[in-house]
Amino acid sequence: MKKILFFAVIFLFLIPQTSEAQCAMCRAVLESEGNVAVAEGVNNGIKYLMAVPYVLVGVLFYFVYKKMKA
Description:
The protein is mainly α. Helix content is 94%, strand content 0%. The chain has one domain (2-69).
């Protein structure tokens, strides 16, 4: 069990570095083009993609709370 936990923790520490590298690549491409509208569109898309799961989980917890309270 400790071996699985160890590898899981190592894996979780490696995920942000991979994600950050991809974001840097996207940023470099967007900055090199000089098109501000495209860069703003990509940034807005990232914000929406980040917000949707939080909203869905919040709605789910609200309904669970309401169900448990009643």
